[in-house]
Amino acid sequence: MSVRRDRVRLAAVIFAVLLAQVLVYPGIDTLVAALGAEAGLDASMWFLAAEFGAFVAFAGLWGAVSDATGRRVPFIAAGAAIGALGYVAIAALPAAVAAPFEAALLLRVLQGAATVGAFSLAMTMLMDLEGGHGRNMGAAGIAIGLGTALGAPLGGQLYELGPLVPLYAAGGLLAGTAGLALRLVDRAPERNRREVARILAGLRRTPSLALPYAFGFIDRFTAGFFALVGTLYFRTVFDLDPGATGLVLALFFAPFALLQYPMGALSDRVGRTAPVVVGSALYGLGVLAVGAAPSVEFAGAAMALVGVLGALMAPATMALVTDLAASTERGVAMAGFNVSGSVGFLAGIVLGGTVADGYGYDAAFAVAGGVEVALALLALPAFLRLDVDGRAVFRGES
Prior knowledge:
Blueprint: H1 2-22, H2 28-34, H3 41-69, H4 73-96, H5 101-128, H6 133-161, H7 165-181, H8 196-201, H9 210-237, H10 242-258, H11 260-270, H12 273-292, H13 296-324, H14 330-359, H15 361-385, E1 387-388, E2 391-392
Antiparallel strand pairs: 1-2
């Protein structure tokens, strides 16, 4: 019973972090304008990129320190609390001082550096739980999906109240999350007595982690792509306001959220290969379909299909990290996964925005969907050779 309770609480932490993060997406162009930048693709890209650049820089450090101390809970609470202050500071900046947009970007980096600690270590604590890696990562996935599913339409409505309101709401969410985190039971395995630098270097002892990391990268690449390019695509091509844009984004995130747990349990039975490889290939084709849709109705239907396919592959990919990582290196292993995902999200923003700005939305969607399909095809032989404790991953858990 206590394991189930902590699974729910950890999922609630992850949900709150993702909900706070996605609240700002539907009207990102109006937000950067309120912070002193010119509304449009360039400033929006840098505001999103600043957070994920911090994710990349600090996720591994949070994980290594957690493994070295044998503690998770205090770091989750601290990351959430500092992240809450960061969101509120960004929102308060325009009224407090006549600061340039670069000051908001600096605060955004600090907020991202803190927030990733709460997010990554909550996922690591789910790795520490019993009950099946697929189920535990399915709980993480459903929290991620629900946070993003509700964040898009809710953020769109909050923007109707004012361009800075989503930031204040995000700060309040993370403040509550810090209090919730302190009620968790710390189930970290015994302390890893190696120095932090040696823990980080230990990832080289498990080169097979490159497989879930690669899929984490490309899956988050498409998420970053939709956060910026997809949002502006729906707003400009189909002339949607922030509220309607949030609803279209929710067509992806709703099935992505609701199907995570059963899909994670499915991967425990059938193995990781089919959900990850086949799911990713079909997911890439779905992204291409969104970009080729002749109307917002067709685009919305394609977004829903992409959400189902994302739910198939996401928990299996995260569960594979747990399958492969040593118990005393789970913090840094999951941090590595989140770093690869954050790099992917950052690349999706920057590369997707650059291609869309220079060559148009059709080319940008072709890149985003094409690389997902290509990775699935290239990775299949490596998956078929992969073995976990004498058990091939395509056969499922014994």
